[in-house]
Automatic annotation (TrEMBL):
Database matches in CDD domains: TM_PBP2 (cd06261)
Record GO biological process: microcin transport; transmembrane transport
Source organism of this protein record: Desulfobulbus oralis
TM region positions: 9-30, 121-142, 154-186, 206-229, 264-291, 311-330
Name assigned to this protein: Microcin ABC transporter permease
Cell compartments where the protein resides: Cell membrane
Pfam family, one: BPD_transp_1
Organism lineage: Bacteria, Pseudomonadati, Thermodesulfobacteriota, Desulfobulbia, Desulfobulbales
Length: 347
């Protein structure tokens, strides 16, 4: 097991290096970088955010070369590309992601400031999906082919077919003070007078604001997880050991939760570590825009549009590491929940 973990950790190094090198190379050829945007604005062109070649060319032509050199030095573009890349990777090893060009603050502080929204959407969605899909999937497997199974599958597939942002707009129109009822707030995580509330009222106010965004971002995931749970349990229910257990006189409840459950739950549980970790950093641009939430999705979009390379590359590095670690934890969870699996035999 230890050898397998060390091998996977060592393989992460070239993987991360390759992803960062590819992304860094692409950014070198994307027009309208931070220096060009600043030049265009200082020259009176592209003040509205245009990054086209015409505005860029006119801006460069109207700026003093010495001033242009100062801007290149300010953004670190006075050094060769490979020098800047290796310097960046050296800083990333200690999680120093530098300063944002657009927001003018530390990338780490910027990401932390967006975390409340991302954690709220991700964690609540994670809890609701697992708490709903496992019991519902088991119930569907036990009642496979029944009216309950068909009806719930139909509802789940309809929810899966509706995009989250479309559902969010419909919910706002129906329940957010649109054309019908005003049961839930339109925007934000909390009310304007949240600071003056008691602790109990703060919790209720926060949960009140989370209902519509979490519902919009969760419905699409319910179908996949529920059907995965159903199919996993249905496959085990039909196996020979279940017939043998029933022949010994065990009740359906004892067979289901004493034998089937610990085998059929493996595919669901093994995805738990990765889903739990990524839930802290999940972001949805459309959901955040619809409900006026300033989270990771909106930050990622703004960073790409404004060529905010420290944020783009820094968050990519962090999320790549996070994804690789979550994959490793998912693989290790197979061994923890199923003793029959051993990575040592793969050697």
């Amino acid at each position: 097991m230890l050898a397998y973990i060390v091998k996977r950790l060592l393989l992460m190094i070239p993987t991360v290096f390759g992803i960062m090198l590819l992304t860094f190379t692409i950014t070198q050829f994307v027009p309208g970088g931070p220096v060009e945007r600043m030049v265009a604005q200082m020259s009176g062109y592209g003040a509205g955010g245009e990054t086209g070649g015409g505005a860029l060319y006119q801006g460069k032509r109207g700026l003093d070369p010495e001033r242009l050199e100062q801007l290149n030095r300010l953004y670190g573009f006075d050094q060769p590309a490979m020098t800047r890349f290796f310097r960046m990777m050296r800083s990333y090893l200690v999680f120093d992601f530098g300063q944002s060009y657009y927001h003018h603050q530390s990338v780490v502080q910027l990401v932390i400031s967006k975390m409340p929204v991302s954690m709220s959407l991700g964690l609540w969605s994670f809890v609701i999906v697992y708490a709903t899909c496992i019991p519902l999937g088991i119930a569907k497997a036990v009642r496979a082919g029944s009216t309950f199974d068909v009806a719930t599958t139909t509802v789940l597939l309809i929810g899966y077919a509706i995009p989250g942002f479309v559902l969010g707009i419909v919910l706002l129109v129906l329940f957010g003070g649109g054309s019908f009822w005003s049961f839930f707030p339109l925007r934000g995580l909390t009310s304007d007078n949240w600071a003056g509330m008691t602790l109990c009222h703060k919790v209720l106010d926060y949960l009140w604001h989370m209902v519509l965004p979490v519902l919009s971002s969760t419905v699409g995931s319910l179908a996949l997880m529920t059907l995965l749970t159903k199919n996993s349990f249905l496959e085990d229910i039909r196996k020979q050991y279940v017939i043998t257990a029933r022949a010994k006189g065990l009740s359906d409840h004892q067979v289901l939760y004493g034998h089937v459950f610990r085998n059929a739950i493996i595919p669901i549980i093994t995805g738990f570590p990765g889903s739990f970790i990524t839930a802290f950093f999940t972001g949805s641009l459309l959901i955040e825009t619809i409900f006026s939430l300033d989270g990771m999705g909106l930050l990622a979009y703004q960073s790409v549009v404004n060529r905010d390379y420290p944020v783009v590359l820094g968050t990519l590095y962090f999320f790549t590491l996070l994804g690789l670690v979550s994959r490793l934890l998912s693989d290790l969870s197979y061994v923890l929940v199923d003793p029959r699996i051993s990575f040592e035999s793969q050697g």
